[in-house]
Amino acid sequence: MAAKHFVNDPTLLVNSALHALTLTNPSVALDAENKIVYRRPGHASQVSIISVGEVVMNLVLEPSSVKDYSPHPLQVLYLHHRAPSRFADVWMSRVDTEKGILITVMNYTGDVLNFGMAVEKAKAAGLKVEMLITGALAATGASLENVYKLGKLTAENIVSVGASLDHVHVPGRAPPNPNSEESLAYEEVEIGMGIHNEPGSGRAKVDLPELVKRMLTQLLDSKDKDRAFLNVNSNEIVLLVNNLGGVSVLELGGITAEVVGQLERSPTYNIKPVRILAGTYMTSLNGLGFSISLLNVVNTNLGGPSMLQLLDAPTEATGWAAPIRKETWEAKSTSTRTDSAGVEEDIKPSGLKLDPEICKIALTGGLQRLIAAEPDVTRFDTVVGDGDCGIGLKRGAESVLSIISNENFSGDAVVDLARIVQVVENTMDGTSGALYAIFLNSLLAALRENASAGQATPEVWGKALQSASEALSKYTPAKPGDRTLVDALHPFVETLNKTGDIKKAAEASRKGAEGTKGMKASLGRTVYIGGTGFEQVPDPGAWGLSEFFLGLAGLGDSDYELV
């Protein structure tokens, strides 16, 4: 459980969060004493919707309905910290009571009973009040009865289930005992955990696909008498994937893709949602979990906007993701790209010849040596970087090795290098991936310019490498002495141009890489990571490149000298 917070005073946290709502949405105001956020006056009369609860929900203002209706159907958000009997007194002055009041309450016994009491007290005072869960219909000017009916109909056609990797931690409370029965093991997930850490239906050690499969089974298995209270039989289904507060945006995207994939691919379900909503809608502090909700889109029989129209309606609610237009959703199912984007182009032969077998042997040696060096490169990068350099180089090398092992070289230097460049671009990412892609593409262009030579001699390679190095310098200020891969690249290119001897060039490259030990970095991640240890290890990028050059030249550890 994550027990660290930026604000550890719960009272200050709640007050600040409520105040922030008014800062991000000028249409609402705050009654700080009573912890009420309410819509400022000056709008058309409509049914007033009041939301109450213990946790500030992101949906501070519910989504509006269609066309020119008010974008603010929610009149009051009441964070109950006082007796609910007091509630009726404080909100009556904050809302328009002409068309009636609908109070939305989470389905907890205490909330239902206590705010039910407040509702009855308001009725006794002559107000027209109902309590349920509803949506945007109020903004259309619909009657309280119709708004209530829509809320009830929606509740009857929706199923939800959640899962969490850990319990919620309340700011200001002591960290929990990690060895207690309440704590989840590292690989465990609890299905059905409540937003107040109520126990779920069970715990399991499962990956995301299996977890989603179990959750959908709980939602959709019509044979499960305990849970099959809704038959999802509508031709139109809305999916909502909700972040309980502690899931990263990136991970929520992965979860959403998995849920949609299983709904659409499963022959049992074959559900293609007409709307997919994913975001942080209803939270539980730093809850490290998510919930899946499915809504049957049914005819409201109330006239006016349909369920989908209400969901698609524009809104100024700060917590509601900007609605996608109906036309955009419908175009999704009919419009696809038909061009050939991403299809590899055939590279025209240049006429610059090389020996396919010699080239294959040399490249294989370089790639295999680079792959074998991954543990050392990773160790060096763990000291002076973020530890991913070795894996990135290994991934690129393995991909290129796979290609040259399974495909024959054409014998044309440009054609064969172009194939390798495509692999590097597709498999190597990050800064090093970009540097290699720039350099190799520049090398490709330089070789094509020298195609008239007819044969790819060491001299031709040397000139092309020099040209590629100059092109690379346009995009990075790195030069020898900056503790980067250039410390290994530059001496290799210089020596090959001077001597035409690849073995001497590889030895010079290794000497340059060795020289980065103790060298203070001027560029790259090492500069701002700081710390010590750079005196004992070389630059990981330079070391990896020198390993490749040594293998390319067919040199073993005992075949070269650094002096």
Automatic annotation (TrEMBL):
Top-level taxonomic group: Eukaryota
Biological process annotations from GO: anaerobic glycerol catabolic process
GO MF annotation, one: ATP binding
Alphabetical keyword list: ATP-binding, Glycerol metabolism, Kinase, Nucleotide-binding, Transferase
Domain (DhaK) ranges: 9-320
Catalytic activity, as annotated: dihydroxyacetone + ATP = dihydroxyacetone phosphate + ADP + H(+); D-glyceraldehyde + ATP = D-glyceraldehyde 3-phosphate + ADP + H(+)
CC terms in the record's Gene Ontology section: cytosol
Pfam families linked: Dak1, Dak2
SMART domains registered for this protein in UniProt: Dak2
Record-annotated DhaL domain positions: 357-554
Pathway: Polyol metabolism; glycerol fermentation; glycerone phosphate from glycerol (oxidative route): step 2/2
Family of the protein in this entry: Belongs to the dihydroxyacetone kinase (DAK) family.
Protein purpose: Catalyzes both the phosphorylation of dihydroxyacetone and of glyceraldehyde.
Name assigned to this protein: Dihydroxyacetone kinase
Organism: Monilinia fructicola
